[in-house]
Design brief:
There is one protein chain. With 507 residues, the protein is an all-alpha fold. Helix content is 64%, strand content 3%. It has 21 helices and 3 strands. Strand 2 and strand 3 form a beta hairpin. Helix 10 runs antiparallel to helix 13. The relative contact order is 0.12. The chain binds zinc ion. The site of zinc ion has 4 residues, from helix 11 and helix 12.
Amino acid sequence: MVEEITVFLAMSSPYSDLIRQLQRLHTLCSVTGILGWDEQVNLPPDSADLRAEQMALMAELSHEASVNPAIGEALQALESGDVKLSSDERVVVREARRDFDRRVRLPGEFVTEQTRHSSAGYHAWTRAKPANDFAGYAPFLTKHVELAKREAEYQGWGDRAYDFAIDKHDPGFTAATIEVVFGELREGLVPLVKRIATSPVKADRARLRGFPVEAQAKFLREVTDRIGFNYQRGRIDVSPHPFCEGSGADVRMTTCYDIDDPMNSLFGAIHETGHGMYEQGLPLAHHATPLGQHAGMAMHESQSRMWENQVGRSRGFWRYFEPRYREEFGSQLAHVSSEDLYLAVNAVQPTLIRVASDEVHYNLHIILRFELEQKLFSGELTVEELPRAWNDLCEAILGRRPTTDTEGMLQDVHWSGGAFGYFPSYCLGNMISAQLWQTLTEQVAGVEDDFARGKFGRLLEWLQTNVHSQGRRYSALELVQRVTGAPLSPRPLLAYLEKRYGNLYGV
Ligand code: ZN
């Protein structure tokens, strides 16, 4: 009887009302996520129309659930001061308020227009990119910029539309703060890149050819399992573009294979595993609330990049995995020495294509996009002027000039769906991962030696304790300050790149 009363009281409190609504929204979103995953992985070719209908209905239901007045009423009651809240509950209320306000400020017709245009823009881009047809794509991009500015206006950020675009992905960051750290990073990277280019040491990834897909899949499964992805609460499949979807109890990641570029599949999979382990490490008990959600895309990217780069490209990692790699690919590696294999893993070669870039050049690709996005939003640059501006800046930063827009401003998918302010997350993620890594290696002695013994548990535990378990309690900037004792800086990343690549290339 007593228990029943407790349950009744708990069920009728404003906090439990809020949780019930968030739970419903989370469940709807997770169903949409699975449908989206299935679309990329399993969908028969002629079933796209049915899937589009299913997705549209789910989007409608999710939107309704996300602006349900019951959420606003519960939040109001919880903010009135009449209800005593724990510190966890205060975080949930603060973040749920932020999400709710942002959703209700957008008129329904605007959300529909934006969703439609996002899909139209994506399809226009898939046609324009292979055809090198900037003119056919430009009107879609122009409208995307217009919609993004309108969205910022609805949110009360009309005079800082680009800041709003950034804040959507990474709360707390602004263009001004990013400009400072990117400026310092660029200054440090350009001379390093030049020195590596003059090194007599040359990496040759092209020698790794003819790696059968089945054996790649087997090895990749072993690696991702060993570093700590929980296959009881997730899986890996194949899709044209690798991604990671879902959280908590069900994390789906994908990879794609190329028999003549095995490093691409392997490091793509380790990258997605980093994303996946972050999602699996978020507190399950809070899975539907902001405490069970990640702290922005830069923090997310820091997790994937740390496993991909600091771990996957380390000597220790290869000391442990190389014998197994050779067991699986004996004939392909017969004339490749251990040092050449390690060099292939850490090849530094300039390319015009961001996704094919090594970790030294990668940040320069992002700095280029960040500068152009800022100018697009400030009006300093029109969409029509973009291809030329892209090529000029590419030549200035990367020392190479694209000869087509296909390998220039048409190469990325992001803008085609209206995702502005997203690119900086990649580079900020690299910085965060290096800064966390520096602190971690100071606090956990011999963690790199663990890798050579195939042990990755101490690293994962440290990340779970310091980052994953915090959910959205802190912004990425706050979390970096708390964990490392210093504000976000490009210096740990520069020091890490200098150490690894300076040594390897003898420069
Ligand atoms: Zn990623």
